[in-house]
Amino acid sequence: MDNNNILVVGRRLPIIEKWLCSFYDDLATEAVEAVTGLEAVSRARVTRPNLILMDLDMPAMTGDQATARLKADPSTRNIPVIVTTAFSYGSLVDRAITAGADEIMHKPFALKLLRAAMQRHLSLDYQPPGIPNDAPRPPAISYTWHQW
What we know:
5 helices; about 35% helix; single chain; 6-stranded parallel sheet; alpha/beta
């Protein structure tokens, strides 16, 4: 199995990090980290991750702005972006959906929900045969921790 590459963007959360490290081993996954939205866009272009876990509230460039840049770039637009946020609703969440986020996970969320989302997106083929890069995308899925 080829290694999956995940770009984790945002402040470091020790509990999530500890869990993700064990999860990375299960899926033969390696993590690359970025702290700001600007750094995320740059690293995604270089590392071409299979999945991006993006926080919304970051300095320099918010997660929705970074997601919009990634989805506008032909070289990164097909990388699934799971946005994690402490905001339940509001303009940042709305902007993340409009920017093209594939899923919105509201903190606090059940780790098994994050695991399921990651597995779902890691099993996706980023450019299915016959589907052009500019094909319409389904709307983002938004979950809260109590839905799982």
